[in-house]
Amino acid sequence: MGLLKLAALSTLGYVGYKFYEKQKLDRNGVAFADGEPDGPFRNAGADATKTHDRMSETDEALDETYPASDATAKY
Q1: Which pLDDT tens digits describe the chain residue by residue (75 residues)?
Q2: Is residue 36 within 8 Å of residue 48, measured between CB atoms?
Q3: pTM for this structure?
Q4: How many CB atoms lie within 10 A of CB 32?
Q5: Could you tell me which residues belong to the region Disordered (predicted)?
Q6: Cα–Cα distance, 67 to 43 (Å, whole number)
Q7: From the CA atom positions of the chain, what is the Rg in Å?
Q8: Domain range summary for the chain, segments of one domain joined by +
Q9: 14, 16, 29, 73: least buried by Cβ within 10 Å?
Q10: Is 65 exposed, middle or buried (0-12, 13-18, 19+ CB in 10 A)?
Q11: Would you say 41 and 33 are in contact if contact means Cβ atoms under 8 Å apart?
Q12: Is residue 46 a contact partner of residue 68, using CB atoms and an 8 Å limit?
């Protein structure tokens, strides 16, 4: 009887986990606004972000340089 309960609880946990993962899945990620192209990169600027929050001039300039500003990490 204990093994049957363990199997039922494991199945319930698995189904719950899959449901949770499906709900949090976002095709472009949290930084992308609706209508942005698929892929790992989005257009630059506040209009391309999901929240459309106003960016400072510095933030906008840094956003426009990505990914060119990132180091290659080949040290």
Answers
A1: 788 999 999 999 999 998 887 776 555 555 777 777 777 777 777 777 777 778 888 888 877 777 665 566 565
A2: yes
A3: 0.39
A4: 19
A5: 31-75
A6: 11
A7: 21
A8: 20-34+42-69
A9: 73
A10: exposed
A11: no
A12: no
